[in-house]
Amino acid sequence: MKPTAWNLLFICATIAYFTGMALQKDALQFACKPLLVSSLLGYFIAATKGVPSSFKKWTIGALLFSVGGDALLLPANGNELYFILGLVSFLIAHIFYILCFHRMKVQASIPGKWYTAIIVGVYYFFIMSFLLPHLGALKIPVVVYGIVISFMLLLAMHLYDLSDNTTARMLLTGAIFFVISDSALAINKFYHPVAWGGWAIMSTYILAQWLLVKGMTRFIITGSKPAT
């Protein structure tokens, strides 16, 4: 399939998924959720076909484990095992994004910035201090996951200094939306569930993955590639 076809599949899957949420049709949501990131994966592979880049494998790994996390979290309502497995799958996805962003930072010779660590650290300690009393047996997995996604955000903040401002904005905004989505999920699950929680979680998650895929695709295609 061509990139435009994968884009169309992503749009259709997104519309169908949110239609399922609006109509409270679980079967439609279950059918469409794995297609969301799968279609973005298909788009990324098709759009970067024939372009040599060592960054492709890290992005594909992140998307594959994201698809796995989506699938594992489908039956996770009330099932702690599936939730933990889904958490682990997304943790691995973030590790792939971390490896990718770190290599981009090194290739572009972007220096570290102390104030970005302070910003991310303040947010991490704020959200953890808020959630810790409510985590119960999942305290350690959630704390570790929070550290990993915070580090992913930290590296994305450094990438804002990439020479291609459009790519930089896509990657940073995508990382921010990912943190917002996971924070909303944690608050909704462990602190106080709200009726619109699912909409907040999924809309920011879909935007996050879309922006990250578009940013990485642009980074690879525009020639900002390392030697392979």
Describe the structure.
GO terms for molecular function: hydrolase activity. InterPro entries: TMEM86B-like (IPR012506). This is Lysoplasmalogenase. The protein has 228 residues and is mainly α. It has one domain. Helix content is 79%, strand content 0%. It is built from eight helices and no strands. The chain has helices spanning 3-23, 26-47, 55-73, 80-107, 114-131, 139-158, 165-191, 197-221. The radius of gyration is 17 Å and the shape is globular.
Give a short account of the largest sheet: none
Determine the strand fraction and express it as a percent band: under 5%
Order of helices and strands: HHHHHHHH
Unreliable segments of 5+ consecutive residues: 224-228
Key attributes of the depicted protein:
globular, mainly alpha, 79% helix
Secondary structure layout:
Blueprint: H1 3-23, H2 26-47, H3 55-73, H4 80-107, H5 114-131, H6 139-158, H7 165-191, H8 197-221
Helix pairs in contact: 1-2, 2-3, 2-8, 3-4, 3-8, 4-6, 5-6, 6-7, 7-8
What's a concise summary of this model?
The chain is an all-alpha fold and 228 residues long.
